[in-house]
Amino acid sequence: MKKRNWILGLLLLAGLAAIVYLGRGRIHFNWHVFIEQIAQVSWWRIAIGISMIWLAYGVRATRWSVLLSPMKKSSWRETIGPQVIGYTGVALLGRPADLMRPYLTARKLKTTVSAQLAVYVVERMFDLDAFALIFSGLLSFAPDKKTMPHPELVRHFAMIGLIATIGVAGLAASVRLGGNAMARVARSVFGGIAPKLGEGIASKILAFRSGLEVLASVREVALAFGQSLLMWGMIAVAYLQTAHAFDHSPELHTLTLTRCMLLMGASMAASTVQLPVIGWFTQIAAVAAVFQGFFGVPAEPSLGCSAMLLIVTYLSVVPMGLIWARVEHISLREVAAQSEHAGEELAS
User: Fold this and answer.
1) At a CB cut-off of 8 Å and minimum separation 6, what does 53 contact?
2) What is the pLDDT of residue 337?
3) What is d(CA 145, CA 259) in angstroms, rounded to the nearest whole number?
4) With contact defined as beta carbons under 8 Å apart, do 145 and 151 qualify?
5) Which residue, among 80, 124, 69, 88, has the nearest Cα to 105 in the 3D structure?
6) Which of 25, 130, 155, 308 shows a CA-CA span of 20 to 30 A to 17?
7) pLDDT of residue 141
8) Segment holding 147, helix H or strand E
9) Residue ranges of the chain whose pLDDT lies below 50
10) Residues 6 or more apart in contact with residue 58 via CB below 8 angstroms
């Protein structure tokens, strides 16, 4: 799997190099303007953006404790360390290191890895629903929706976000209430064609249902979803403040929250296949493409703001995470390998 990731990363890097080489006569980029844009940013806005991201980690840790409460009582003070160290691992080692968070939490709280992976699965479901709801809500009802570029495409994005919200919530409710019956149906329908396929689908449904058992009451669901909305609101503010920090770019300094959601969507899509270091550049390229293609921002501030967004929302946790890992005598590479192995064992 790691070999395949690196091959994909090298192909992406080669593709970016080819685009730059082939377009060298048509792409006009002024490095002097780029450096000026970076030097003239409003650093207090950048500080606000980083503060929002750090506070969001605190909210994420609190939500983890809420989701874990039916199995193990804990506080955010106990779950914040694995979150910070885990996201540091993702930033430096790539998306597969995301399993560090449930693995480290299991070690710290002395619970099973499977219990923490159940929380991880449900956490991701809440993340998707909360972001999709904010995304579709803003794109559908914002005052500036009529002035958005490519309005038809934006409406499609809003509809997709709304459908995704309803679909994930409906699927979760169905599996939570009737997961055993759904697994039996999958086993009987697909088992006649391919027994391994039927058994695999059934086991995935049962594993998902097991994860959803952390949602023991309506109160916990409501509390976790409210925390998810708060967290994604903080992340949106971080994006907005970072864009507004570019005072000398009118397109960025006046960017609205609605338009900011498109940037968040592009950034999230690019980060789903995050690779070590190489993924930073693909993420920057994806966000810069949205800046230029949707909002007409010149190349220099587009690249500058995209790089700054990566630092604020993704890399700002790294110094704190490395110090925390050092204090707790944790090797990021070792824990990443152990957590990936534990995840593969549970999936098999």
Assistant:
1) 234, 235, 238, 312, 313, 316, 317
2) 87
3) 9
4) yes
5) 80
6) 308
7) 74
8) none
9) 1-4, 6, 8, 18-27
10) 76, 80
The token pair at 3 is 């070999």
Phi, psi of 334 (to 5 degrees): -65, -45
d(CA 62, CA 230): 12
pTM across the whole model? 0.81
Encoded tokens for 216: 């023991």
DSSP per residue, 215-249: --SHHHHHHHHHHHHHHHHHHHHHHHHHHHT-TT-
- In this structure, the dihedral spanned by the alpha carbons of residues 234, 238, 240 and 246, taken in order and rounded to 10 degrees, is 170
**CA distance linking residue 47 with residue 305, whole number of Å:** 14
The number of CA neighbours under 13 Å toward the Cβ of 64 is 27
**In this structure, what token pair is assigned to residue 260?**
């900011």
Angle between helix 100-109 and helix 43-68 axes, rounded to 10 deg = 60
Residue-wise DSSP of 258-304: HHHHHHHHHHHHHHTT--TTHHHHHHHHHHHHHHHHHH---HHHHHH
Where does 23-144 show beta strands of DSSP type E?
A: none
User: What residue type is assigned to position 167 of the chain?
Assistant: G
Q: Where are the domains of the chain?
A: 35-144+216-347
Residue 235 and residue 125 in contact, taking contact as beta carbons nearer than 8 Å: no
Q: Does residue 40 contact residue 201 with C-beta atoms inside 8 Å?
A: no
For position 277, what pLDDT does the model report? 61
